[in-house]
Amino acid sequence: MIRTRTDGDVRVVTLDRPEARNALRPADLTALREAFEPPAAGPRAPVTYLRGAGDAFCAGADLDAVAALDDPETFARRGQRVAAAIEDSPSAVVCGVDGPARGGGVELALAADVRVATPRATFAEPGVSLGLFGAWGGTVRLPRVMGEGEALDVALSGRVLDAEAALRTGLVSRVVDDPRSVADEIAAGEADALAAIKRRLRDRRDDGAQERAEAAAFADLHDAHADEIARQRER
């Protein structure tokens, strides 16, 4: 499901489950977190490029897995750890969104340093239709990136943003035909400067308390709406 390769100064991490629009199961979350952890030895490419295989970036959490959860709070915390690993990676992380990003897919993108969309990209937080919400750090990062007003609109309505709307709201910084080209552009910078810039711009207070509250609220809603989640999965 998670493929990695190094191409010069860019490490490419691919969500590779196109038949399911790259939806993430618990084991996939573990593999994705490990892909962003610092290597035990040797250098790390100065830029990591996160992408999805096929015609979607990521559909978020696999609904079969969500419907079967017996510990939804732990599942939410697992997703938060993945997002934190992306955000805390020593590499500059460029996320290229080509096609749909939904729910957890949006949250993975939010954790990246640079988000770039193709004209085909679309974004939505559809959790409200299941009686849930994005609990992989979404309630922390979405208002930080878009501003509180836009974040509330997007999360409460579940509406779909096209690439231009994502650009207007700050969800992405560019709309280009080839997002990988942005990763290559950034990789042309000096590696130590890239790392220093990321450290300084990412230096902020700890959001751990907010994320723990987020995970607990997600668990409560999951339990309350388990039947509706199962019905949605069967459609």
TrEMBL record:
Query: Which UniProt keyword terms apply here?
Result: Isomerase
Coiled coil (UniProt feature): none
InterPro entries, alphabetized: ClpP/crotonase-like_dom_sf, Enoyl-CoA_hydra/iso
What GO molecular function annotation could you give as one example from this UniProt entry?
isomerase activity
- Indicate the transmembrane segments per the record: none
UniProt-listed Pfam families: ECH_1
Domain of life according to the entry = Archaea
> What family does this chain come from, according to its entry?
Belongs to the enoyl-CoA hydratase/isomerase family.
Name by which UniProt lists this protein: Enoyl-CoA hydratase
